[in-house]
Amino acid sequence: MSVTPTVLYDSHGRPLEYVRLAVTDRCNLRCFYCMPEEGIQYVPRQELLTYEEMTRLVTLLAGLGVRKVRLTGGEPFVRRGLMGFIEQLTHIHGINDISLTTNGVLTAPHVPELARMGVRAVNLSLDTLDRARFHQITRRDELPQVLDTFYALLAAGIRVKINAVVMDGQNIQDLVPLAELTRDLPVEMRFIEEMPFNGGSHAATLPWNHRRIREHLEQHFGAFTPLPTPVGATASEYSVAGHQGTIGIIAAYSRTFCGTCNRIRLTAEGGLKTCLYDQGVLDIRAMLRGGSSDADIVAALTNAFRYRAANGFEAESQRPLHQLSFESMSTIGG
Known about the structure:
Blueprint: E1 18-22, H1 51-63, E2 68-72, H2 82-89, E3 97-102, H3 111-117, E4 121-125, H4 131-138, H5 143-156, E5 159-166, H6 175-184, E6 188-193, H7 210-221, E7 225-226, E8 235-239, E9 246-250, E10 263-266, E11 271-273, E12 282-283, H8 284-289, H9 294-304, H10 312-317
Parallel strand pairs: 1-2, 1-10, 2-3, 3-4, 4-5, 5-6, 6-9
Antiparallel strand pairs: 7-8, 8-9, 10-11, 11-12
């Protein structure tokens, strides 16, 4: 059916213009803050949304005002056929911003094609520049491959944001070296509060919140200059005197940015999350495979956002037993 372009608003008047789409729950790293060393129980492949199903869904979301798609995982590049799927997304009317979040291990060979297809930005997960600590954190010795991807992206003119999770007792000594990358390179170095989505049984504590992260960095670099914050942005962004790039700090656990949140999440198995901290509000896969029409799916999506939590704390309070830590970030789309 032909969907009349409109704008999808949630129950708090926030336009929903950005979808984070997990194409897989599988990952080739085992970062300890994301999943146990033995990994997680992956969704059977037949239960993952097909690329055709995802294309149909993104087309419907574009008709509701979604303009940006970020592909996440797991690690997107472990799923075969990803580049062909990205090509399909570039032809969806209304989608004008396609980006990726990747750990960079398998990405470098695809960078020229990503640039050709018009991928605007890539978020690169990188918690340390030290090879031994990288191995300790990820349980894999893949830092050289990640750095190959980093420099290939820069050479191709693709905007790069580096995401580093700040972990007490693990990579605090890496914060300044990572921030130093912004001195001579046009990158945004983003430091993220640790969250409780670790696939284990204990929620994270937060000895390093966004205020402490900033204070720690300013002790080395001097006072940061706040930059304007776009509507929907998760990071508080700062310029540093004499640096080409910028510093971003994401209060992911403190949740200071919820008031302007414009994003939704789709898990690899077709679950709709209106907030990172909710338990999922709609099984879209069941609708896609159960014969629902486009109009039925649009109506269900629209209805789901009438009951969206005001912020992450409210969404968390509505979860049974608040068992956030039993999930892995790999299963909920990064």
